[in-house]
Please model this.
Amino acid sequence: MSLVYANPGSGPSAGGIGWVNFENLVLNPGQTQLGITGTLNDGSTVTFDIESSAISIVPFTTSQPPLQYSQFGLGQYTNIQGNVALRTPLLSAYSSASTLLLSNIVVKDSNGNPVPNYTAVVADAESTNKFPQYTEYLELLTDGGAWDLLSTIGGNPPSLTGTNTPSVTITGTNQSTQASYVLTTQAPSTLTLSLYGRGAVAIGFAITKVSLSKNIGDRIDSNDQFVLDIQGNPSDQATTTGITAGLQGEVANVFGFANTTYTINESMAIGSVNPLSSYGQIVSATNLSAGGIVPPTGQLPINVTPQLGDIIEYTILNTAPETFTKSVDKAYADLGDVLTYTITVANPNNFAVNNVLITDALPAGTTFIDNISSSVPIVSGNNPASGITLSAIGADG
Model:
């Protein structure tokens, strides 16, 4: 089994929901498939068992009859590859419901640690209708958070009752219904999905994650350590250790909730010699979920509000300041002597710095001589009192 994704932007959080591809799984009455596992886009894994009752359940793609009449996979969440729709057979009896039981649902991060906050997603993957002989319905039960409506796809939808409770029912109201509902529940360990009539469901999972890493250009003092801080619901902190430059091993991670604001910040750890203001600070961010929000950057603290399925990774680059030394070729000078001053700039960081501006006021009693100042690379004719720009200084240069 695997988790597959719809086209980014083709529905709410489409790039962040991994739909279970059941491949060639067939569940006969009373049969249980243990240990179905898939991997989300951040490397986290989802594992669960699934059991069918009453009648057989078979997997199909969202484009196969009669699923092509449903808007899931067509109107939204398009181009899902694989057999993500579990459906009752076309010739099944309509006198009873078939129940799918998903149990022992567990999500773990890439290090094998349990993820307490995750989202299960269930979509009506077939048109739920009302016919003269019978009425189709879906009943969804969760032992996690109450059901929330993520999306209504298409017009003329069936009846939906029970949102904001643990039990939702989708009931056909006419024969021409083609609309679909997509619903979410937080951190369930068990889902019970009952299908009456020709029904189908698609099952997906998503996590909403914010992480904060540290890249150190150079420590001004080996005792300087940084506290990485993500505040929200939940919160997390991580403190750097060691004396090496570069990307640090410590990371603050929050497996959080959609539409919740988290604050990104940093501070100096107890025992540090230098204040945070002694370091330069550059914040970068990326979202691993295609089509998700563009995380804001700029000056800390930064507030970010992820959407369902966003995997947002922040990195703070701290730089040590360049050092400057100045010397002159004469200890004493007489009137009319030419004095040559040398200013040396050193970059202690493990990366190049660009466009460094050097300014130096002329000593009292001296006059700048045009066109004889230079730098490496050479920039002639600049008065240091007005500033000389060095285009680049190499790492540890």
Notes: The mean pLDDT is 85. The longest strand covers residues 98-108. Residues 237 and 374 are 48 Å apart (CA to CA). The chain has no helices and 28 strands.
